[in-house]
Amino acid sequence: MDSFNQTTGFRYNSSSNRMSHHSDDESEFSGILDIYVHHARNFHNICIYDNQDVYAKFSLAYNPDETLSTRIIKGSGKNPDFNENLRLKITKVDAVQTCEIWMLSRARNYLE
Question: Residue ranges of region Disordered (predicted)?
Fold first, then answer.
């Protein structure tokens, strides 16, 4: 079993004024979600030319268009090691975080 030296956590901003007239304002800051992306293991390598280049993409369910991504891990195949820290600002305390693994498409480069 791998041991991880980094942690993922949530810090809540208790000094935010939740009783203000702007409590429904999406831009009001409530906290920070610190994410440590360690690795992904054993997912299908769909690239037929070489080992796939992948990255992880994170978002919050209430705002799926605002995303954070890791750097691209070139030639990682099915076992990328990210070892990267990301930070999401949270505006809703009951937020749900999503993670997706994406392959960088290089099809245009192979066709040229």
Answer: 1-25
